[in-house]
Amino acid sequence: QVQVVESGGGLVQAGGSLRLSCEASGSLLLGYSVSWHRQVPGKKREVVATMTATRATTYSDSVSGRFTISRDDAKNTLYLQMTKLKAEDTAVYYCAARMGATMMSDPVYYNYWGQGTQVTVSS
After folding, report:
1. Cys-Cys link to 59, which of 14, 21, 64, 106 (CB 3.0-4.6 A)?
2. What was the pLDDT predicted at 51?
3. Partners of residue 71 on adjacent β-strands
4. d(CA 98, CA 102)
5. What is the number of other CB atoms lying within 10 angstroms of the CB of residue 109?
């Protein structure tokens, strides 16, 4: 069983950058696929970026070229580097993990979730 806790959210101006972190405990992330999702009130949770246990990555069209997902298995930590932020990136961002190496982006496939961290981009 793995627990994950996000940090690094905050208020940033449009065009700026933020790096989110997600620290895992209870189990090593090695062997888990991990992902970042976001949600705004009244809308479905959407995937932003996914990295499998074998380090294959995929991004949503809305963030491709601006966001980068990475992981440091030695630190048991997942990251999301966000650049060129836009007002529409404002959301609560969640990290998630699932056992296995298959590329799965839909939130329903993820068993372990953090509590979320708020990202607000002012225009």
Report:
1. 64
2. 95
3. 78
4. 10
5. 16
- Tokens 């627990």 identify what position? 3
What count of other Cβ atoms lies within 10 Å of the Cβ of residue 50? Answer: 24
CA 121/CA 107 separation, integer angstroms = 24
Does residue 96 or residue 25 have the better pLDDT?
96
Largest CA distance in the chain: 40
Residue 79 in contact with residue 21, Cβ under 8 Å? yes
What's the rounded Cα separation, in Å, for the pair 122 and 110? 30
pLDDT of residue 55: 93
pLDDT, tens only, 1-48: 889 999 999 999 999 999 999 999 888 888 899 999 999 999 999 999
